[in-house]
Amino acid sequence: MIVKVLDQKTPDVLVVPVFQDDHLxxxxxxxxxxxxxxxxxxxxxxxxxxxxxxxxYTNAAKTQKIYLAGLGKPGxxxxxxxxxxxxxxxxxxxxxxxxxxxxxQFHDQQLSQMAEEATGGMLMGLYSTESLMGKTNKEQKFGxxxxxxxxxxxxxxxxxxxxxxxxxxxxxxINMAAMDLVNLxxxxxxxxxxxxxxxxxxxxxxxxxxxxxxxxxxxxxMDALLAVGQGSPHPSLMLWLEYGTKPGxxxxxxxxxxxxxxxxxxxxxxSIKPSAxxxxxxxxxxxxxxxxxxxxxxxxxxxxxxLIGAIxxxxxxxxxxxxxxxxxxxxxxxxxxxxxxxxxxxRLILADxxxxxxxxxxxxxxxxxxxLTGSVIRAIGVNAAGLFTPNDALSRSLYDAGMxxxxxxxxxxxxEAYGSDLKSDVADLKNFTGKPMAExxxxxxxxxxxxxxxxxxxxxxxxxMAFGDAEHTKAKSATGYGIRLLLKFLEGLVEKxxxx
Length: 500
Fold this sequence. Notes:
Layout: E1 2-6, E2 13-18, H1 24-35, H2 39-45, E3 53-57, E4 65-70, H3 78-91, E5 98-102, H4 108-124, E6 148-152, H5 158-183, H6 191-204, E7 208-212, H7 214-220, H8 223-229, E8 237-243, E9 255-260, E10 262-266, H9 286-301, E11 306-316, E12 328-329, E13 337-338, H10 346-360, E14 365-370, H11 375-380, E15 385-388, H12 392-405, E16 409-412, E17 429-430, H13 439-448, E18 457-461, E19 467-468, E20 477-478, H14 483-499
Parallel strand pairs: 1-6, 2-4, 2-5, 5-6, 9-11, 9-14, 10-11, 13-17, 14-18, 15-16
Antiparallel strand pairs: 3-4, 7-8, 8-11, 12-13, 15-18, 19-20
Helix pairs in contact: 1-2, 3-4, 4-5, 5-9, 8-10, 9-14, 10-13, 12-14
């Protein structure tokens, strides 16, 4: 699809976004006057509720259809993206090849972000999970290679808005690439296959990437990562990513380490999961996809940061060689771990990822992101991910980034008392408390033991956010959660450095 910023051209169909604010009646009156309909009737039929759409026919020579798109009450701009995504998904089969979004009624302070979110939303609304199907939809015009999305703005701001539109387009493309990885079934992305796909994406975005093979993991002492994958015929691996050059001693360039959980399929191992919904465990590498997507976004936006990434990849299967409850395993840090539950495997591979990254290069900020526990979903549902860090300043920065990006976080306590149940009689730690409460916090406290006491470390539990119900699928699917959040956090670090 071609995306253009224009000030004059008349598209085949026009989408007019409208906020539910004090100017609604005036705006509807103007629209009614332009197309020749009764203003009072229009005001009765359209309230501008979020995701409310009304089709109007006009007598104009070219633009014969206008869709009013309700944005709801003014609030976070990220919600605007959701409206446009819903619109594109619902009407894509009825839309012509050229569709315009009219933003000429918005003031300059709103315009750039409106353009970014409208562009991203329209493109993401065309996302499909049908890549493995034999059939293709040849009849659809909007979304085809030569179709056009036209963002209409005033001539005076056309150039300044172009950057925002490009950003919205790039982030949508990156988001959908990450969603593709998560949506792939397990037989299409065991550790080797997923690593190859990730290496290809990294290369396309100019990201330095290296794959640590099973022999490398053994040499480095990553026994926890190896243990999780030992029941699978597909060996565990680790993808190492780098973006930006190492800064000098006096440089203010932020250095951030990201670790993403990459369990390509999770049966639970010997502590096997119930069969109901186990097919969704293809999504247990949502954290890995978020880390790669963040690298891709940083590279495309040319952010002046240094990123280091560790993505441990393993398949947690049931086999005669699989780890058993009660086994004691080693780890990269040298700490021994008693495996109480083989379904608490994500924290094991993250433990080696965190330890390895901080040994290789000690970043200013260290963040791991993972679909880690069902406990966090029971605690706060599916409207936010869990935020765990002992650093209050880092907590505030990540929370703010979540609110600005629309990918919300909620902080949990990290008191020492929550780690007391991880004590083992036969090892340095056990990987599971066995208690039915606060398990998401216990998991975070477990990970804290492998950060080398990093002063700015945070754990993000995205179990309820990376994969869920969506308009574009019959069942659950990937959301791309985490990329916009981490990008906004990185941009905040850059802005803060520039101010100092």
